[in-house]
């Protein structure tokens, strides 16, 4: 495995994007099952406030999970890039009829409505995308730092919620990642094959 963060990011994104349509479909089904199982173990099964995201760039498909969570009557929130600083995220309520708009990366997000935003510490669970993860629960993102910057002022040793859960394909696992001081480690990562906890 390459040593630098940029090289790891490039290598893993290539692996992720080489997955076939059928592999992605099967992975989405397995993710739905694994997350539903893990949700029961977290004792946060009814009317939870859950931050989730739309998959992009070969990421593990979250569309089936979103539908499943709606069926379970969970409250879902999608990230919106902060309209003023452009470097952190808001999490806004997402329902089937929510008006959507494309952000600067071409990813759909809810049209900003301040009355529908959930403060970060009111989310029960935050599902996070990642490019790579290692044996210690360290996460390597796409490089924009949106999640790390958003979580920076909340993260501390006794932080209880939201529970941070990374979602990834198994091919995104590496033995060890080069870590920076601003990286927020995860205690839960779910792949189609396995549920990791630290």
UniProtKB/TrEMBL annotation:
Q: Does the keyword Lipid biosynthesis apply?
A: no
SUPFAM superfamilies referenced in this protein's UniProt entry, alphabetically: NagB/RpiA/CoA transferase-like
Query: Which cofactors?
Result: Mg(2+)
> Which catalytic reaction applies to this protein?
(6S)-5-formyl-5,6,7,8-tetrahydrofolate + ATP = (6R)-5,10-methenyltetrahydrofolate + ADP + phosphate
Q: What class of enzyme is it?
A: ligase
Question: Per the UniProt record, which EC number(s) apply here?
Answer: 6.3.3.2
Record flagged with keyword Metal-binding? yes
| Keyword terms | ATP-binding, Magnesium, Metal-binding, Nucleotide-binding
Pfam families, from UniProt?
5-FTHF_cyc-lig (PF01812)
Check the record and name the InterPro entries matching this protein: FTHF_cligase, FTHF_cligase-like_sf, NagB/RpiA_transferase-like
Give the family this protein belongs to, as stated in its UniProt record. Answer: Belongs to the 5-formyltetrahydrofolate cyclo-ligase family.
Q: What is this protein called?
A: 5-formyltetrahydrofolate cyclo-ligase
Q: What is the lineage of its organism?
A: Bacteria, Pseudomonadati, Pseudomonadota, Gammaproteobacteria, Alteromonadales
